[in-house]
Structures are given as structure tokens and as C-alpha cells.
Write a structure and sequence with these properties.
Elements lengths: L1 E5 L2 E6 L2 E8 L5 E5 L4 H23 L4 E6 L4 H15 L4 E4 L7 E5 L6 H15 L2 E8 L3 E8 L2 E7 L10 H6 L4 H8 L3 H7 L12 H12 L8 H4 L6 E4 L2
Antiparallel strand pairs: 1-2, 2-3, 3-4, 5-7, 5-8, 6-7, 6-11, 8-9, 9-10
Helix pairs in contact: 2-3, 5-6
Length: 247
């Protein structure tokens, strides 16, 4: 028997058929629906719910990362086509969501890349290389730092980390390289270089800067990027977004 989870819902499958389902309720309860009154199916579903609660509790205590890829285009269909073709080649992901154009950019939210900055970088590079478009990967890492990478035709043109050595000390040259280049960013986005310089601040500690999500909001407004604070789980509710299932 296989139990699958999607958000707060669980389904038990046997020989390719759904034999039961469970749903968590906001008050902490569980609603069970069984095709037939089978104790084994009920136990499998309840154990899956309990395991999910434990996983969610651990995740809530751990620092979280999230991020998205933004391509400078209004052609949603072309981005959907690129995502459909490229994502399975880059990593195993069940779902990617492509937003409609907003302010001249289309956002891509992926189940795997959302929480893994390394995979987010890979996805951004692959999409930029395949499309030739100006592309930004941007998000928050471990609740501590804002990180963006600006690309064009797959090449990294600028990289910014608000707390360059939040994972550990860096050589001075490496830390300097992670400061924003306002001139490059202005050319790519049309933003004011002075505004980029004012917002894209760096510090030795997160405590010396606004909260990471607040800094992300300020920076996104300057760059003209919308939807940067949306997590993958929320992206499917963006009006006119296209959900691409890879499995």
C-alpha cells in the first residue's frame, strides 16, 4: 500500500486504486474516508498523518529558505514550454508553477528549487541559457540573508548576498564580490542605480539589517520584481498561473 501526501490531504493507494483518504483539519483533528472499513488502511493513513506532523514541527523550528526565478519576458507560453522541457533535466521535481507576466517579468516557482538555493541557481542558469533572457534568482536563505543572482544568456553578471559570510567567514575579496553592482543591475532592469545602491545593503550580521523578508520586499520593489515573497505552496493560487506537473 502506498500513501501519498499533498498538503494536508493524504490518499492510500492499492493496486493503482484509491482505497482511503485522510485530511487534517485546522483544529488538529483528522477526517478519514475509507472505501471499505479496513483497519489496515486506516492505520496507514493515521501513521502518515502523525509522521507528517512530526516533519512539519521539525521544519517549523529549522531556519527556512525560499526563492524564485524571474525572467524578463511577457511570453508565459514560452516559459511554460522551457520549464516543461528543462526542469526534469536539472533535478527531480514533481511540480513547477509559472506566473503570468507582471511588470515585464514572469516568475517561476519550483517545488525543489524553492527551498534549496543551490538548485534555484541551477534552474535560473538553465532557463537563462535556454531562453537568452535576463534572469534573476532571488530569495531568502535560512531566514538570515537576501540573495540574488543576475544572469543573461546563462552567464552570471552580478550576485548579491545581504550578509555575505552568514554561513561562515569568507576571504575579503569573496565578501566584496557579493555586494550588488548597481550599474549592472540598472542596465538589466531599468532601475535607478542610486536606488539599488541604497537598498542593497550588506552587513556582517543579520541583526544590522532589516528582517530578511522586509529587505527582500524593498529590493524587489526597486528591481521591479513582483511575487518574490511567494512560496511554492502559495504560487498555485496566483491568478492565471500555469501549473506544470512533471510526474
Amino acid at each position: 500500500m502506498n500513501v501519498r501526501r499533498e498538503g494536508d490531504s493524504f490518499s492510500a493507494e492499492e493496486n493503482g486504486e484509491v482505497v482511503g483518504a485522510a485530511r487534517r483539519t485546522p483544529d488538529g483533528g483528522v477526517v478519514l474516508e475509507l472505501r471499505e472499513p479496513r483497519e489496515g488502511v486506516a492505520l496507514a493513513l493515521l501513521r502518515a498523518v502523525a509522521a507528517a506532523r512530526a516533519e512539519d514541527a521539525d521544519a517549523a523550528e529549522a531556519p527556512t529558505s525560499f526563492g524564485s526565478v524571474h525572467l524578463q519576458t511577457d511570453d508565459q507560453a514560452a516559459v511554460v514550454q522551457a520549464v516543461t522541457k528543462l526542469v526534469p533535466r536539472v533535478f527531480r521535481s514533481r511540480t513547477t508553477i509559472v506566473s503570468p507576466p507582471r511588470n515585464g517579468w514572469i516568475a517561476v516557482y519550483d517545488e525543489v528549487a524553492d527551498r534549496d538555493p543551490r538548485q534555484l541557481k541551477r534552474l535560473g542558469q538553465e532557463l537563462s541559457n535556454a531562453s537568452g533572457l535576463v534572469t534573476f534568482t532571488i530569495g531568502v536563505e535560512e531566514d538570515k540573508a537576501v540573495h540574488y543572482i543576475a544572469l543573461e544568456r546563462g552567464r552570471i553578471l552580478d550576485e548579491y548576498v545581504s550578509v555575505p559570510d552568514f554561513r561562515g567567514p569568507l576571504p575579503p575579496g569573496d565578501a566584496v564580490a557579493l555586494r550588488a553592482n548597481p550599474t549592472v543591475v540598472a542596465r538589466l532592469t531599468g532601475a535607478s542605480a542610486a536606488s539599488v545602491r541604497a537598498v542593497a545593503r550588506t552587513a556582517a550580521s543579520p541583526d544590522e539589517l532589516p528582517p530578511a523578508e522586509e529587505l527582500l520586499r524593498e529590493l524587489s520593489e526597486v528591481l521591479g520584481l513582483e511575487g518574490t515573497r511567494i512560496r511554492f505552496e502559495e504560487a498555485r493560487y496566483v491568478p492565471d498561473a500555469v501549473v506544470v506537473d512533471h510526474e
